[in-house]
Amino acid sequence: MNVNSNAYTYTFATVMVVLVAVLLSGASLGLKSKQASNISQEKKQSILASIGIEVDRSESDAAFGEYIKQSLTLQGGTVVSEDASAAFDIDMAAAIKAGNMDRSVPLYVAEKEGDTYYIIPMRGKGLWGPVWGYLALESDGNTVVGATFDHKSETPGLGAEITTPMFTDQFPGKKISEAGIFKSISVVKAGTSAGDYAVDGISGGTITSNGVNDMLTDCLAPYAEYFKNI
Question: Are 131 and 218 in contact (CB under 8 A)?
Answer without folding.
Answer: no
